Amino acid sequence: MLNLSRWKVLLVIASVVLGLLFALPNVLPQDVRDRLPGFLPSNTLNLGLDLQGGSYLMLEVDTQALRVERLTNMVEDVRTQLRDGQIQFTDLGVVDGAVGVRITDPGQVSAAARLLRNSVGGVLPGASGGREVTVTTAADQRVRLAFVAEAFDAQAARAVEQSMEIIRRRVDELGTREPSIQRQGSDRIVLQAPGESDPERLKAIIGQTAKLSFQMVDESVSVAEAQAGRIPPGSELLPSEDNYSPAYLIKKRAVVTGEMLTDAQQVYDQQSGQPVVSFRFNGQGARRFGDTTAQNVGKRFAIVLDRKVISAPVIQGAITGGSGQITGSFTVESANDLAVLLRAGALPAPLTVVEQRTVGAELGADAIAAGQISAVIAFGSVLIFMVLAYGFLFGGVSLVALAVNALLIVAAMSMTQAALTLPGIAGLILTLAVAVDANVLIYERMREEYRAGRSTIASMDAGFRRAMLTIFDANITHLGAALIMFSLGAGPVKGFAWTLAIGVFTSVFTAVLVTQVLLGLWVHTTRPKTLPIS
């Protein structure tokens, strides 16, 4: 074991050099880091919410609003299918959590039920192969459509997962590093955004549903008539945010939706110089938009965001390029925020802020200072113990290995950009405090072998070889515990587990290989006759 193989020496040297390269940015000023060449690491430790300060939000997905939206969409699907099937109907609407419709001709009730059963709603996921919607008939020529409970539960679960991904994309667009986004319960999401100094803007960006659609304006009746209650079937009255009309009568069926956008950017209008949002559709959206504008020249179409009309321009000609601009009373910031929302995608359901906390950066600074003091105390305590127990040579070798251990942990955390939390600092201190366990096992085994009559070199070699199984066994147990905490824990527990897991690998490497190389160099240089720790 004390044979100084070239690969061992090179591995230790390479590890120390790489550790220095990745850890060095943490002690350099920002202006120096900005001037570093591109091939050199420049990332510093990524501090978590409790150390860096930031915003904590607990959000609830409004699954009831999702149910209402799905029922509303089902009403329009039923209307379209019955019209296409030339089946006369009345009293179409949502009643008691389901969609009801009365078929005018009694002889067409069975045909209507069969048509709707095959065309409305999708197939349930899984092996059952059933449909999402049940269709039943009643004696008064009514047909009732309702979601099965399994279908809506699956939709609600998908909505929560989609919301988490969209929240992550929106927060990433704001430049927040390593946000923590986790599911809590069936319909709640916890967001921790370290370094986000404006929680209100964060709430505005995250909480806005951002459902964009392009819909035709219904000009068959005036807005005044619609406000008086004369709203044609298939249309609705929506409020407006432009300067031309307080509201618009809009056809419910969307021509193009925000899901068909491929890009959105804040730009400036070439004529007015005002901030606007440019957008581009995918192939399907471009074809639909081009066909609709070609067929409706001279008519208005509305750009609707979260059930509010942003603008309702008149179609001057076919727009076939698949791109356009959204104009309005935008500032640069509001136009950029809208572009961020459109790029990230629309939330499947509204979000409600259930809990909000703001962590000040000064609390994190206090925690870091306390952690530094704790680390110094831990290192000093280990130093005193190792020197008193094993002398300046062997104790000093252990302390050098311990310093390399701390260097590699900081380097690994900086390289992976994993968030360092306050429990993570506790894990770091714990790692340093117990890292010398391997050295103690090795040294005590050396003493036993030397007292049994072996030579100095044979005792040292046996100490490394025979203690190895115990060292690996103990650290594999630690690693298993860290992996369990990381997979089942959340927030602070994950921070502790991540630091502990990195510490397991660096501790074994430094306590065994670094110590072995240093003691091997001492043996080959001095050719000792006695064991200093005997």
Descriptive labels:
about 525 residues, alpha+beta, 4-stranded antiparallel beta sheet, 15 helices, elongated
Description:
This protein has 534 residues and is α+β, with helices and mostly antiparallel strands. It has helices at residues 6-23, 30-34, 49-52, 63-84, 109-119, 149-173, 199-207, 223-227, 283-295, 332-344, 361-416, 422-434, 437-451, 456-488, 492-526; strands at residues 46-47, 54-61, 89-95, 98-103, 133-137, 142-147, 180-184, 188-194, 212-217, 235-239, 247-257, 261-268, 275-281, 301-305, 308-311, 323-326, 351-359, 419-420. It has a 5-stranded antiparallel beta sheet. The chain has a 4-stranded antiparallel beta sheet with strand order 7-8-2-17. It has a 4-stranded antiparallel beta sheet with strand order 3-4-6-5. It is elongated and about 110 Å long. The model has no long low-confidence stretch (mean pLDDT 83).
**Count of runs of 4 or more consecutive helical residues:** 15
The coarse silhouette is: elongated
Query: Percent range for helical residues?
Result: 40-55%
* C-alpha end-to-end distance: 19 Å
Portion of residues in beta strands equals 15-25%
Largest sheet: 5 strands, antiparallel
* Tally of DSSP β-strands: 18
What is shown here, in short?
It is built from 15 helices and 18 strands. The protein is an alpha+beta fold and 534 residues long.
Question: Strands, helices and their partners?
Answer:
Layout: H1 6-23, H2 30-34, E1 46-47, H3 49-52, E2 54-61, H4 63-84, E3 89-95, E4 98-103, H5 109-119, E5 133-137, E6 142-147, H6 149-173, E7 180-184, E8 188-194, H7 199-207, E9 212-217, H8 223-227, E10 235-239, E11 247-257, E12 261-268, E13 275-281, H9 283-295, E14 301-305, E15 308-311, E16 323-326, H10 332-344, E17 351-359, H11 361-416, E18 419-420, H12 422-434, H13 437-451, H14 456-488, H15 492-526
Parallel strand pairs: 1-18
Antiparallel strand pairs: 2-8, 2-17, 3-4, 4-6, 5-6, 7-8, 9-11, 9-14, 10-11, 12-13, 13-16, 14-15
Helix pairs in contact: 1-11, 6-10, 11-12, 11-15, 12-15, 13-14, 14-15
